[in-house]
């Protein structure tokens, strides 16, 4: 029995509805809290991001208020989205996947409430700190130092839980989803702590600071957001399609190769920068090496989907996951392209360099989380999604927004780079020409925000404990964990 | 793969290798980089920032100017930074050892600022110009997308007192109104001291090779 389980190439869960129900019951409240925070930040961050985007073509917008000057608003928005939406969503989805695949219930869930509270207090203070003028101006590390401990401690509470769940697993089989989650759970705190130490506690000198910053930013995308997205995709595809992962024997190789090469690829952000040349060169080589795992993961995921594209019609989750997978390939291709000096020379410092990170963080990671949320929340709450129309709006807006922004930022960014590299064109002329693309970007972000609002409303319905639709098949009592919160 | 321990060590090793390989070895190499004493005039370069300019660096940081501005000049043959007069040469790692925090930047919504205080490259880019640019960007750069930072200035009535010597001389279209004057706050003064300090004029003989020969083979390729 065990030997067959070990070679299974699909997410194996203990069969038996009751056991799964038990896991979901134990996980319900903590995960709903994480989801609620995540979606709240998605809206707040999206609104701030939209305001910052408007400022690029209408510089007078909110310019009189120091708290909302573009140089503060833009990083505040970014941090709210990354640490607010991104991390809470990853916690919720990651914990659920880990519990289901390790076939253990969530124990001592009360700690997770505390972790959620601390984490989000930290992010809120961090974002306010940036707006109030305590920004460090290091990309994605802008939050003032006083929130760092809070974030690390609350992360530890969540991370320890994920690792414990994994180590007390009741299954023989360790599925690909678990490797990615386990890896990400370790990589993030390490990246974050090292970056904090090397930039603030014992600051390194000179241009080593941007090297550390690049290493962190690249790691955050490639070793935290992408692994969590892949974890969700490896779980959801076979689950929904009811089949095994195609070419699963490639998966371990792809995992290790992806991890090692990504860890070295950060230097590729510094092509042409005044740093020792071997740093960008090493990053470039790592980016070339990444072609292999991306192809292998593509074989796994698209191979699983192949011949079953009809199933897309029936499943919102599947459509979000497909979008996420396409973005993963595209984002990896963008990193690859940026490794060529001829491309970097034009694309650096433009809308295109923003697009590269956005593809991985938003188009790949966030859409995977949306897909996972549509799968998990009905199981967690025992309710149905109240409004299929809102689901359609969310999906439609996301697809439209992602397509609009990908095409627009690529096109606009490339022409921006071409203009910047043409010294006969005055800078003001470049700005004037870019006004169109900045406006376009605002439109794209607005479309996405509409989708997020639809998601919020639907989430409020499904998560509401007083669901009046009467569709709830299993009335679940709040677990004792809740008492910890009240105490 | 079912062994948790193997997974743990592998995951650990992947990042440890990159940390040691990239960050530690770069730290070894860059840690040795020191100031350079010019043999002809016995001066040490790069010269440290003045106290006021160093405070200005903090203002630059808290206002997030790095969101739109880079501070790195790419060498000849890689972009048009030199042709745009953003520097007289590509930046060297050594230029940055005077800065406590280094913000190379990753977006050029605005121009590069690494040499914005170099009057040879930007005649007229003096303190007065920077104040006006910060208070009302369109008064010096019509149609500019640079946001105004008017909150770095105090606007007082002139009536009944000596007009301030540091009041901005603005064209009437941008002035706040008759009887009012615009005076830079201490933060604005620090920031402007920082901006005027931004210039890498000295070309280190020991670094020059990094710029020129590296550019040569590239020129052939493009």
Brief overview:
The complex is a heterodimer of chains A (487) and B (222). Chain A has 487 residues and is an all-alpha fold. Helix content of chain A is 74%, strand content 0%.
What does this structure look like?
The complex is a heterodimer of chains A (487) and B (222). Chain A has a domain at 8-173. Chain A is globular and about 70 Å long. Chain A is 74% helix and 0% strand. Chain A has helices spanning 2-6, 17-57, 70-102, 110-132, 148-167, 176-201, 208-241, 251-264, 278-289, 291-305, 316-338, 341-347, 351-381, 388-420, 427-463, 481-486. With 222 residues, chain B is mostly helical. Chain B has one domain (36-208): Cytochrome c-like domain (Cytochrome Bc1 Complex, Chain D, domain 2), CATH 1.10.760. Chain B is built from 6 helices and 4 strands; from the N terminus they run H-E-E-H-H-H-E-E-H-H. Chain B has helices at 4-31, 51-62, 127-135, 137-140, 186-197, 208-221; strands at 36-37, 44-45, 153-157, 180-184. In chain B, the strands form 2 sheets. In chain B, strands 1-2 form a two-stranded antiparallel ribbon. In chain B, strands 3-4 form a two-stranded antiparallel ribbon. Chain B is globular, with a radius of gyration of 23 Å. Residues 213-222 of chain B have low confidence and may be disordered. The interface between A and B is large, with 88 and 76 residues.
Keywords:
heterodimer; A: 487 residues; mainly alpha; 16 helices; globular; disordered N terminus; disordered C terminus; B: 222 residues; Cytochrome Bc1 Complex, Chain D, domain 2; two-stranded antiparallel ribbon; two-stranded antiparallel sheet; 36% helix
């Amino acid at each position: 029995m065990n030997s067959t389980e070990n070679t299974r190439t699909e997410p194996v869960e203990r069969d038996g509805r009751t056991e799964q129900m038990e896991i979901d019951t134990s996980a319900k409240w903590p995960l709903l809290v994480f989801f609620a925070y995540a979606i709240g930040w998605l809206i707040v961050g999206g609104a701030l991001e939209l305001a910052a985007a408007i400022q690029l073509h209408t510089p007078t917008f909110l310019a009189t208020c120091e708290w909302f000057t573009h140089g503060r608003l833009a990083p505040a928005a970014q941090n709210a989205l990354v640490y607010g939406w991104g991390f809470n969503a990853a916690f919720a989805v990651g914990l659920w996947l880990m519990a289901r695949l390790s076939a253990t219930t969530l124990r001592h869930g009360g700690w997770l409430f505390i972790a959620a509270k601390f984490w989000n207090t930290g992010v809120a203070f961090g974002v306010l700190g940036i707006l109030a003028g305590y920004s460090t101006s290091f990309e994605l590390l802008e939050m003032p130092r006083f929130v760092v401990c809070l974030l690390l401690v609350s992360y530890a509470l969540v991370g320890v839980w994920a690792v414990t769940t994994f180590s007390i697993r009741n299954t023989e089989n360790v599925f690909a989803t678990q490797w990615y989650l386990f890896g990400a759970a370790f990589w993030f705190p390490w990246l974050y702590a090292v970056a904090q130490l090397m930039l603030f506690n014992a600051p390194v000198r000179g241009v080593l600071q941007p090297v550390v910053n690049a290493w962190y930013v690249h790691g955050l995308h490639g070793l935290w957001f992408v692994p969590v997205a892949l974890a969700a995709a490896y779980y959801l595809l076979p689950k929904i399609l009811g089949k095994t992962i195609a070419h699963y024997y490639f998966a371990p190789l792809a995992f290790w190769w992806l991890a090692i090469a990504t860890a070295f690829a950060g230097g590729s952000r510094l092509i042409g920068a005044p740093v020792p040349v071997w740093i960008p060169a090493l990053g470039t080589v790592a980016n070339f090496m990444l072609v292999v795992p991306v192809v292998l993961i593509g074989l796994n995921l698209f191979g699983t989907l192949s011949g079953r594209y009809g199933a897309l019609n029936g499943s919102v989750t599947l459509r979000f996951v497909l979008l996420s997978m396409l973005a993963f390939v595209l984002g990896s291709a963008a990193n690859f392209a940026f490794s060529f000096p001829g491309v970097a020379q034009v694309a650096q410092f433009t809308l295109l360099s923003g697009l590269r990170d956005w593809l991985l963080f938003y188009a790949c990671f966030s859409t995977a989380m949306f897909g996972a949320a549509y799968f998990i929340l009905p199981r967690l709450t025992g309710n149905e999604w109240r409004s299929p129309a809102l689901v359609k709006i969310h999906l439609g807006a996301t697809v439209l927004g992602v397509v609009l922004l990908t095409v627009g930022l690529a096109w606009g960014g490339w022409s921006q780079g071409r203009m910047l590299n043409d010294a006969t064109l005055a800078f003001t002329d470049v700005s004037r020409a870019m006004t169109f693309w900045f406006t376009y970007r605002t439109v794209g972000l607005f479309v996405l925000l509409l989708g997020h609002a639809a998601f919020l409303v639907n989430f409020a319905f499904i998560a509401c404990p007083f669901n009046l639709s009467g569709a709830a098949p299993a009335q679940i009592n709040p677990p004792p964990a809740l008492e910890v919160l009240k105490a | 793969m079912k062994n948790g321990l193997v997974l743990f060590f592998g995951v650990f090793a992947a990042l440890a290798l990159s940390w040691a390989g990239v960050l530690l070895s770069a730290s070894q190499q860059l840690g040795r980089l020191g100031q350079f004493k010019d043999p002809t005039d016995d001066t040490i370069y790069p010269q440290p920032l003045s106290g006021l300019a160093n405070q200005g660096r903090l203002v630059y940081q808290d206002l997030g100017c790095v969101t739109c501005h880079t501070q790195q000049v790419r060498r000849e043959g890689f972009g048009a930074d030199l042709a745009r007069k953003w520097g007289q040469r590509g930046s060297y790692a050594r230029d940055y050892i005077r800065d406590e925090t280094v913000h190379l930047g990753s977006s050029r919504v605005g121009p590069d600022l690494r040499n914005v205080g170099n009057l040879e490259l930007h005649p007229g880019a003096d303190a007065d110009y920077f104040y006006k640019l910060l208070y009302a960007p369109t008064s010096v750069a019509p149609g500019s997308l640079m946001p105004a930072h008017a909150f770095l200035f105090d606007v007082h009535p002139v009536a009944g007192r000596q007009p301030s010597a540091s009041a901005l001389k603005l064209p009437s279209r941008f002035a706040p109104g008759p009887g009012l004057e615009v005076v830079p706050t201490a933060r604005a003064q620090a920031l402007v001291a920082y901006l005027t300090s931004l210039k890498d004029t000295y070309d280190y003989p020991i670094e020059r090779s990094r710029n020129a020969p590296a550019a040569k083979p590239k020129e052939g390729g493009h």
